[in-house]
Amino acid sequence: MGGDHGPIVTVPAALELLRKHEDVCAILVGLEEKIRPLIPGELPSRLRLHHASEVVGMDESPALAIRNKKDSSMRVALDLVKSGEADACVSAGNTGALMAISRFVLKTLPGIDRPAICAILPTVSGHVHVLDLGANVDCSPEHLLQFGIMGASLVGALEHKDRPTVGILNIGEEDIKGNDVVKRAAELLKESGLNFIGNVEGDGLYKGEADVVVCDGFVGNVALKTSEGLAQMLATFLRQEFGRNLFTKMAAVVALPVLKHFKRRVDHRRYNGASLIGLKGIVLKSHGSADSFSFCNALERAADTVRSGVLQRISERVAQQHTIQEVN
Amino acid sequence: MGGDHGPIVTVPAALELLRKHEDVCAILVGLEEKIRPLIPGELPSRLRLHHASEVVGMDESPALAIRNKKDSSMRVALDLVKSGEADACVSAGNTGALMAISRFVLKTLPGIDRPAICAILPTVSGHVHVLDLGANVDCSPEHLLQFGIMGASLVGALEHKDRPTVGILNIGEEDIKGNDVVKRAAELLKESGLNFIGNVEGDGLYKGEADVVVCDGFVGNVALKTSEGLAQMLATFLRQEFGRNLFTKMAAVVALPVLKHFKRRVDHRRYNGASLIGLKGIVLKSHGSADSFSFCNALERAADTVRSGVLQRISERVAQQHTIQEVN
């Protein structure tokens, strides 16, 4: 029900998911009277409708949402994950509320203090998983170590990489730079047995220097949003330049196939779907402004995550970490 | 002498500066035997050469540079500012060393605890001054307030704006978001009498939401470097797409004037020259990889800063701030 557009986006995305993936079933959770009219004809066999009478507002306080909205679509969807009726929950709604209710309903995995938001960004050579992107504004070195373990487990499970590389976002390549938390976290990551490659600077994110980059949620969120803002500005400038006069408009027509290819390559909609990782269940957050194409990508990413067995992988890796720490 | 290229870039830039601005004199500080051969014919009347026998390495420890290199080009140039022989110092060298030696030689302005690095970024509607970009990895709320005062004074002086808008970089638009330091800093900025507009998110930087945005040096540096990395990646992708085959190459030829115009508009070289602000003297840091065009822009920015009388403006504003705090 959430996001900027609600069921008008999420329902067609779910129908597209079922069309593309024959092994997937979908449960649409929310106001039945709003959802049902958006499904043409009979309900497809792999689609269920689960009524929930309330909706968490996009600006609603997470604490109030937990206390007062026990029949919100968000809460009910997460309850379905908790009971095992659903394998994953995907929402385009209020991020803070989704994280808070997920923690409240599902709890964190053993050995994980705080869940994090992990998203994928494109790089020159592929892509990178970055966490945390805003769930935790203040992090201890131990939290950053746990983010590294969770990120590496996720990439390992999703991409079948044995030893994904892990870096820490910092402001210099030398060990001496950065603040105390980052320096201590780097030491912990070095001792962790992860494939830790050291500091990654802001520009290193897009150079593909690591498979996983960890940072606190404040810095990560600024990096993500700054990137969004810059990309939007550059797109605006490019449109303005090609729309300047008759000649530039003709040039635009000639260049259109190239520009379209370029746009497809950097289309943020393809990267939609951030994992709320560290919970006893799979939860993905779609961008609030997602369209159907974009939301369907988040749904597919959720299905991939379920198939990957990532939760067990994290649990095993955390247990292994405890052994490493006892030996040290 | 510093930067990735040394005098081969800085000397032609200085000559270009003199050609463009008849009221400016330049002193080239460094190894005379390296600099002199780069000046064709006689020394122009407004150009002086000041020999310095040492060079601070790009990776040299700032503390060691202060202690051991008393005749480095950086140190000597800053001594010239201190003695009043020069009005400003511009360097493409080691940022940490430039900041440390500047503090050591020039000292900070009264009421300013820490100098900051302030650079200009393009926005959809113009540009924004952002500070700090890496000098201070940990900042107190009071430091962020001082950054706001310095940034507003700089914009006021350079752009003749009476009440430039000031924002604080944060991860949400609501007051409740962000960490404790940022929240407290926002309170101080609100009470400061500055034209404070509240939180600016990462994407707001490029939307031109404020004339000045303050943040700690860790976050600012990540935002800046992330932007550089993303811009480089997008440029690479665009080049790749236009170079894909014969048709796309022909499209590139047609689109070339438009693409050139676009490139000129977002050319980071035009924004080169970050102010080390808060010192009793004017010091600018050029990007280490700057070419002559880019370095000349930093030199011109330094000349503008000298003409603006910004140092006095900061001092007056800091004194005013003390009065405001006493009244509160």
Automatic annotation (TrEMBL), chains A, B:
The keyword Transit peptide does not apply. Pathway: Lipid metabolism; phospholipid metabolism. It is an enzyme of class 2 (transferase). It is found in: Cytoplasm. InterPro entries: FA_synthesis, Phospholipid_synth_PlsX-like. It holds the Pfam family FA_synthesis. One of its GO terms (cellular component) is cytoplasm. It comes from the Bacteria. Its main location: cytoplasm. The keyword Nucleotide-binding does not apply. Keywords: Acyltransferase, Cytoplasm, Lipid biosynthesis, Lipid metabolism, Phospholipid biosynthesis, Phospholipid metabolism, Transferase. Its EC number is 2.3.1.274. GO terms for molecular function: phosphate:acyl-[acyl carrier protein] acyltransferase activity. It catalyses: a fatty acyl-[ACP] + phosphate = an acyl phosphate + holo-[ACP]. GO terms for biological process: fatty acid biosynthetic process; phospholipid biosynthetic process. Belongs to the PlsX family. Catalyzes the reversible formation of acyl-phosphate (acyl-PO(4)) from acyl-[acyl-carrier-protein] (acyl-ACP). This enzyme utilizes acyl-ACP as fatty acyl donor, but not acyl-CoA. Homodimer. Probably interacts with PlsY. This is Phosphate acyltransferase. It comes from Propionivibrio dicarboxylicus.
